[in-house]
From TrEMBL:
Domain of life the protein comes from: Bacteria
Domain called NmrA-like: residue spans: 2-252
Alphabetical list of SUPFAM superfamilies matching this protein: NAD(P)-binding Rossmann-fold domains
Annotated CDD domains: TMR_SDR_a
Taxonomic source organism: Corallococcus soli
Protein name: SDR family oxidoreductase
UniProt xrefs under InterPro entries: NAD(P)-bd_dom_sf, NmrA-like, NmrA-type_oxidoreductase
Pfam families from the UniProt entry: NmrA
Length: 285
């Protein structure tokens, strides 16, 4: 059985759909906080298990001996390590065959604050003795393209990235990599640094948005504290705004750049291009 945690999230949905193209539905299970959100999957023959990372008791029976598990990292920054640890403990107790974890690019060496919980999770998984695969996902195109509305409204993309280059890929790209690892062989003990095939600066991103939208959009670089304050002004909690500003400062130093092309090799196709991502986002508006 292949078990996907967090399967009703944005990444998880793509993973499950990808799995259902490769294996029978009765070989796929989803571990989700709200089973109602997975009713459509249950109707297709997928086994639905209620699991809450924050309630370790719900993890009893979530996994079985021989399962292959994908632990999609939790979205509550600051609470993720204990949540992930509970999943790892349950997986070890159950005797799962392998646990793949969606980590972050260069988790063990990067200086960005967002990586701390990922690094701790990787260390806990290594120490557990559970066979593992680390999917160190780079930045997502959606981190940018899902926030096009204010950029188009005000003609500005703000950040603290300077001239740093980032190599994002789409959620679907990263999901396809997870599917390849979950259904393939030879991935035990592997650490995959995953990023898009091509990199760009935020100035180049703004220029692409301008080109396709027909509206003038410019990149405005700010010191990290000012960028954090701008994010707070539009409604983000300050701790999260600080983390995003810190990540942008890391981007400026090359922390979110990788040109290994490991992702495209894993999925057997080129990753999503900047023009494609921007075009799809504008079309979806």
């Amino acid at each position: 059985m292949i078990v996907v945690t967090g399967a009703t999230g944005k990444l998880g949905r793509f993973v499950v759909e990808g799995l259902l193209k490769k294996v029978p539905a009765n070989q796929v299970a989803v571990a989700v906080r709200d089973p109602d959100k997975a009713k459509d999957l249950a109707a297709r023959g997928v086994q639905v298990r209620r699991v809450d990372y924050s309630q370790p008791g719900t993890l009893d029976g979530a996994f079985a001996k021989g399962d292959t598990v994908l632990l999609i990292s939790a979205n509550e920054v600051g609470k993720r390590f204990p949540q992930h640890s509970a999943v790892i403990d349950a997986a070890k107790k159950a005797g799962v065959k392998r646990l793949a974890y969606t980590s972050i690019l260069s988790a063990d060496t990067t200086g960005i604050a967002l990586a701390a919980e990922h690094k701790a999770t990787e260390e806990a998984l290594r120490a557990s003795g559970v066979p593992f695969t680390f999917l160190r996902n780079g930045w997502y195109f959606e981190n940018y393209t899902e926030n096009l509305a204010p950029a188009l409204q005000y003609g500005v993309v703000q950040g603290s990235a300077k001239d740093g280059r980032v190599a994002p890929a789409s959620r679907e790209d990263y999901a396809d990599a997870a599917v390849a690892v979950l259904t393939g062989t030879g991935h035990e003990g592997q650490v995959y640094e995953l990023a898009g095939d091509t990199a760009f600066t935020m100035t180049e991103y703004a220029a692409e948005v301008s080109r396709q939208s027909g509206k003038a959009v410019a990149y405005v670089d700010l010191p990290a504290p000012e960028y954090s304050a701008a994010l707070v002004k539009v409604g983000l909690p300050k701790p999260y705004a600080d983390i995003l500003a810190d990540a942008d400062a890391g981007l400026a130093k090359g922390e979110l750049f990788n040109d290994s092309h490991t992702l495209s090799r894993l999925i057997g196709r080129p990753t999503t291009k900047l023009a494609e991502a921007v075009g799809a986002a504008l079309k979806a508006r």
